[in-house]
């Protein structure tokens, strides 16, 4: 069916499809292949759409996305617009990216139909204008509300234009207006712009309040900019701001995410012992999380029991933190018993609770525990979500049961779940581990077409598998595609490339990766085993441990050295070691 569709032969493809007792997934597969063939008949597609409804199959969001993307790519813009209208009539909301794509294509081809799209996007403004005509006069609150709407949607040009309009009308932005901009800029990862807004506030005589500072502090900690966060706290204190529980919790959470667990624990202990700060359940939860990360889950259990006796009410989040700590120690039986003791009502177990235990059981390959968790979920009327199903896929892939993994993916899609990037990576890893590289590439491209965007891990899995198969042309294509998607190589990528170069005997090329890694700011510790008094005389590398901070992955240079020895280039390791020693010093 797919091969006929791929060749543009829709009639034969439909004949095969009817033999399947087709589902909407099968129709989507046919549509995708046919639209990629380049021999598309819009009339035939309309008939196919009608046939789907005849069989009682309701198109899902993937059906509309496949049709829309194909029509846009082929330049059938009016048909693409019709698909969006149909999508809306089926109660699916077109994404902002889809609308923007159609707008750009329409403007480029000078199609007048795009006016309808503009009218749709400006519907809100028509309502505003009608209110103005009726005597409504916009004020500072109106402007701030519109800026909030634009910035929440990431429409920064519009937000800044409205900010200028607001100022030109004589309304000076308030601390609330600026804080809204800062908060949404931080959400979009635009920290420099957010800090620029803070400077603007100082210049315009609009002093920021503690909320503004806390938003920025939280963003710095979220991005692991711990040094900058400490400096920011000093600035806050110099300006006379007294840090509250939100400030300290943001810093403690940042320390925890950066792996500085002991620092986080010490900071929170000081806050708790100070007595002049309100210690709410959020603060306690961060403290409990820090202790669990430090393998002190027993201490957390004892503390929680004592605090409950004194009137403390743990939340579901508190229980989930303890569950995670128990699972980290591989105590799944104890974790399930603890889950049974959860308070019922608002603070009972949720889907995260079950997924925490299920994830650990799947990693351990504990089929008995998996069955127990699934049974409990069924009793509590919880359905598996994308996280739980991905955990099960990981278990099946580890057990070599790839067919079960694919069955789960089909189940996900049929029940309206969008497979995540992690789902994609689990499948890719399982296929590459079994040597099914061609299937892995097919899955990779199909997931991309479903808008499940790959991450650096996806590319690393395929690059490593391609290099092991000596498929260097595919490796080159993957690297090109990776840069096209805006992803940069990490230590694992360089490790795989170095391994491939050494296998080919291209030791010089492997050594040349060093400046690229330095430029890419790949940071890690390089372990070089040095030793042997007659290193230069005997050309033998008998190493003792020596750890120096550098910018190369631990395994890369080991591979380079192994490669040089294997090819009989005994002087090369010496040069590499000398270069690295000089760089480290």
Give your account of this protein's structure:
Keywords: Repeat. By secondary structure, the protein is mainly α. Among the domains are: 2-125; 295-383; 385-487, Serine Threonine Protein Phosphatase 5, Tetratricopeptide repeat, CATH 1.25.40.10. It has 35 helices and two strands. It has helices at 2-6, 10-18, 24-36, 42-54, 61-74, 77-89, 96-109, 114-121, 123-133, 140-152, 156-168, 175-187, 191-203, 210-222, 226-238, 245-257, 261-274, 281-293, 297-309, 316-328, 332-340, 351-364, 367-379, 386-398, 402-414, 421-433, 437-449, 456-468, 472-484, 491-504, 507-511, 513-520, 535-538, 554-566, 571-584; strands at 524-527, 547-550. The protein has a two-stranded antiparallel ribbon. The longest helix has 14 residues, at 61-74. The N and C termini lie far apart (63 Å).
What attributes does this structure have?
585 residues, two-stranded antiparallel sheet, mainly alpha, Serine Threonine Protein Phosphatase 5, Tetratricopeptide repeat, single chain, disordered C terminus
Fold topology:
Elements (H helix, E strand, L loop, with lengths): L1 H5 L3 H9 L5 H13 L5 H13 L6 H14 L2 H13 L6 H14 L4 H8 L1 H11 L6 H13 L3 H13 L6 H13 L3 H13 L6 H13 L3 H13 L6 H13 L3 H14 L6 H13 L3 H13 L6 H13 L3 H9 L10 H14 L2 H13 L6 H13 L3 H13 L6 H13 L3 H13 L6 H13 L3 H13 L6 H14 L2 H5 L1 H8 L3 E4 L7 H4 L8 E4 L3 H13 L4 H14 L1
Antiparallel strand pairs: 1-2
């Amino acid at each position: 069916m797919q091969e006929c569709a791929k060749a543009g032969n829709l009639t034969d493809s439909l004949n095969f499809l009817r033999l399947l007792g087709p589902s909407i997934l099968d129709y989507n597969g046919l549509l995708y292949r046919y639209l990629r063939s380049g021999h598309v008949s819009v009339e035939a597609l309309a008939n196919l759409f009608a046939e789907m409804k005849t069989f009682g199959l309701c198109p899902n969001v993937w059906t509309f996305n496949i049709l829309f993307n194909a029509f846009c790519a082929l330049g059938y813009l009016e048909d693409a617009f019709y698909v969006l209208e149909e999508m809306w009539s089926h109660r699916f909301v077109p994404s902002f990216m889809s609308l923007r794509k159609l707008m750009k294509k329409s403007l480029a081809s000078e199609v007048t139909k795009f006016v309808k799209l503009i009218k749709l996007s400006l519907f809100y403004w028509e309502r505003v204008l009608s209110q103005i005509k009726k005597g409504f006069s916009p004020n500072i609150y109106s402007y701030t509300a519109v800026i909030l709407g634009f910035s929440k949607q990431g429409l920064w040009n519009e937000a800044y234009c409205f900010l200028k309009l607001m100022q030109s009308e004589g309304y000076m932005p308030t601390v609330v207006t600026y804080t809204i901009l800062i908060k949404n800029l931080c959400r979009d990862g635009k920290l420099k712009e957010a800090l620029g807004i803070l400077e603007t506030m100082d210049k315009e005589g609009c002093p920021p309040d503690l909320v503004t500072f806390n938003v920025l502090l939280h963003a710095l900690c979220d991005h692991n900019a711990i040094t900058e966060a400490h400096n920011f706290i000093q600035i806050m204190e110099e300006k006379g701001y007294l840090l509250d529980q939100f400030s300290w919790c943001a810093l403690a959470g940042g320390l925890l995410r950066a792996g500085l667990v002991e620092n986080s624990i010490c900071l929170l202990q000081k806050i708790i012992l100070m007595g002049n700060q309100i210690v709410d359940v959020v603060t306690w939860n961060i403290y409990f999380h820090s202790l669990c990360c430090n393998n002190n889950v027993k201490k957390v259990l004892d503390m929680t029991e004592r605090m409950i006796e004194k009137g403390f009410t743990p939340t579901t989040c508190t229980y989930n933190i303890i569950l995670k700590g128990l699972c980290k120690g591989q105590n799944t039986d104890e974790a399930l018993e603890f889950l049974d003791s959860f308070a019922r009502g608002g603070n009972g177990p949720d889907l995260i609770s079950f997924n925490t235990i299920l994830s650990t059981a799947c990693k351990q390959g504990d089929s008995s525990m998996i069955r127990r968790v699934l049974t409990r979920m069924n009793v509590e009327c919880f359905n598996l979500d994308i996280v739980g199903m991905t955990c099960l896929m990981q278990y099946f892939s580890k057990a070599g049961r790839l067919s079960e993994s694919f069955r789960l993916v089909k189940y996900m899609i049929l029940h309206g779940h969008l497979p995540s990037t992690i789902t994609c990576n689990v499948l890719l890893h399982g296929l590459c581990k079994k040597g099914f590289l061609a299937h892995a590439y097919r899955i990779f491209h199909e997931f991309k077409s479903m808008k499940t965007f790959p991450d650096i891990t996806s590319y690393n899995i395929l690059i490593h598998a391609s290099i092991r198969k000596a498929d260097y042309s595919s490796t080159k294509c993957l690297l090109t595609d990776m840069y096209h998607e805006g992803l940069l190589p990490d230590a694992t990528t360089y490790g795989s490339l170095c391994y491939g170069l050494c296998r080919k005997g291209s030791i010089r090329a492997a050594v040349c990766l060093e400046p690229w890694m330095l430029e890419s700011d790949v940071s890690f510790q390089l372990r070089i085993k040095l030793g042997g008094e007659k290193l230069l005389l005997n050309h033998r590398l008998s190493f003792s441990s020596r750890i120096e901070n550098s910018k190369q992955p631990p395994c890369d240079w080991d591979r380079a050295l192994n490669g040089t020895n294997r090819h009989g280039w005994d002087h090369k390791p010496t040069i590499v070691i000398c270069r690295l020693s000089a760089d480290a010093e």
